[in-house]
Write a structure and sequence with these properties.
seven-stranded mixed β-sheet, 265 residues, alpha/beta, single chain, globular, binds S-adenosylmethionine
Length: 265
Amino acid sequence: MNDAVREHYSPAGLTERLKAVLGPETGPLTPQQLGALDQFHTRGLAATAELARLVGITADLSVLDVGSGIGGPARFLAATYGCHVTGIDLSESFVEAARYLTARTGQSDLVSFQAADALQLPFGDGTFDVVLLQHVAMNIANRESLYREIRRVLKSGGRFATFDVVLNGGEPHYPVPWARTARGSFLLTANATLEAIERAGFRKRVSQDDTEAAKEFFAHLRASGPPPMPNLGVVMGPDFPQLAGNLGRSLMEGRLGVLTAVFQS
Ligand SMILES: C[S@@+](CC[C@H](N)C(=O)[O-])C[C@H]1O[C@@H](n2cnc3c(N)ncnc32)[C@H](O)[C@@H]1O
């Protein structure tokens, strides 16, 4: 495991900061109230909703969210569809924060989290109906192992949905939201990503270039300024607007793109 990736996602005192910013419990929080804070990817809650629709989530499916962050996507799926969702993430502090927020949304019966590496998933073969991977692959150098491991834990005929930043015409301006330097960033082009997934034995159902939608999102963010608190600055620190701004700029300059795709095992 790359130490730069681990360091990047190890904010000290995260759960304490969340407690302070969210204040005392006055009733369950909703995915919409937490969306600017806990959806750690381009286009936030709207992107998770679209991916869920594309992959076809229903209440009876068991879902694994690989690189689940502080758990926003997992909680949204459970709240919207009533399905069971398991999240795994490399970052112990993110897993602790994800569990805390899930208690605050009152969803601990449907949604659970554990610390694990995406390259060594702690589940038996054929455990899940659906696996999601949102803005995680860019931190993982060994894509062959990543996609094979995801396929291993899927049931036969299970579906895999990926939503990630890809290389387009150049390197990003660092720091970006997933890496403060190039040491923790392992981007591939859209074609190389799709080929690596197919080499792992998946069949493509849908693939779409979401670069224009991402550019619109960042243009809007630039015009309106950071979303009101609580937002991702609580998680990643006060320089988060700079990290997000660099991703927006790298997209606008045609250096990077955004790929959404759904596969069948
Ligand atoms: C940009 S965040 C996205 C979080 C979440 N998927 C979301 O969209 O809200 C990337 C996440 O991937 C996790 N991650 C990176 N490399 C990982 C690995 N090898 N195994 C598990 N998680 C990993 C990080 O700890 C971080 O939580």
